[in-house]
Amino acid sequence: MRHVLCLGWKIVIFVSLVLCVLAFIRIQQYSEPMTSPYSTALPRRSRVLADQFTGNPKIAFLFLVRRNMPLDFLWESFFENADKEFFSIYIHSEPGFVYDETTTRSPFFYNRQLENSVKVAWGEANMIEAERLLFEEALQDPANRRFVLLSDSCVPLYNFSYIYNYLVGSPRSFVDSFTDKKDERYNPKMSPVISKRNWRKGSQWVALIRRHAEVVVDDETVFPVFRKFCKRRPPVDPTRGKNNLKLQKQHNCIPDEHYVQTLLAMNDLESELERRTVTYTSWNQSATKMAHEAWHPFTFSYADSGPQQIKNIKDINHIYYETEFRTEWCSNNSTLVTCFLFARKFSRGAAMRLLSQGIVGNFDVSALLKPPP
């Protein structure tokens, strides 16, 4: 009996040791640095506490661009009538690209590029890494109280004063966030750090209050998991036959459509959000199932950007979320308002029309025919 008990205890101790080793390995998977060839360490710099700031609140316009700003002439018109005390500009472009008189027509963008930018690829975690770098840089100015993420094809739909009062007047962040019950992007390997219950989807073009921007920048738990398990879907390889289906399912995340939404949900902050974006996108939705899976944003041309088309966007006052059977009536401090302040994707011709016809602002289009200085 003594030998049996001794053997039993040895088995229990052995199993316990094995479980401890497995648990340790599991923890190490999430705690070890996850580096990529494009990554740089996110700087950690001291910030002025929110309750220590006094003065005029500013909006930080955060431009996430490929290289240059093709619509700089439109934004020049937008910013020139605004008081510089009420806004700041930050640009994440490709590493090494400098904004000066040789690369942009607008002095507003001179030297506004980040010095620590990373190379970005669509569908990869370095996209949200670039976003985090923008938020981090903008947080260094204690006057920045609202943080708006924009692309190089975005246009403002209203003048600066209207957009400023709209954003600063709300105590909430504007984050398009919903649960997609048909979603297949969640990777079970993200558990237990990210549970399926907190997995959210939405537009990457967010407008955050300062406290939520700090949550994004200070995150050291969720981002590493996205970087490890949220990969870009590989291109279809005809030589792999049926194995293509397996590969496609393994890499189907698109992190920029999930990261901020999921992070805020995990921090129980959804009650502090207007769960919608303020940036309008028109999706090219095809009828066939195959094409349906490859939706992409519709690009506005000169012909698509007349007064009536812009009015149609401005008149939108609600958004329907089919997967949640939820209609989000657009409000600001319990007052019904128009949903969108910006729109994308606009071509140069479309932006010229917005300015020449006074839809966004007054502008002499002939100035664009001259080469930059």
Question: Main attributes?
Answer:
alpha/beta; globular; Glyco_trans_14; disordered C terminus; 373 residues; 14% strand; transmembrane helix; 4-stranded mixed sheet; transferase
Strand content: 5-15%
Q: Helix proportion of residues, in percent?
A: 25-40%
Which sequence of SSEs, written as H and E, runs from N to C?
Answer: HEHEHEEHEEHHHHEEEHEHEEEEEH
In order across it, which strands form the biggest sheet? 2-1-3-6
What structural category characterises the helix and strand content? Answer: alpha/beta
The total of beta strands comes to 15
- Poorly predicted segments: 29-41, 286-294, 362-373
Task: Compute the average pLDDT.
Answer: 83
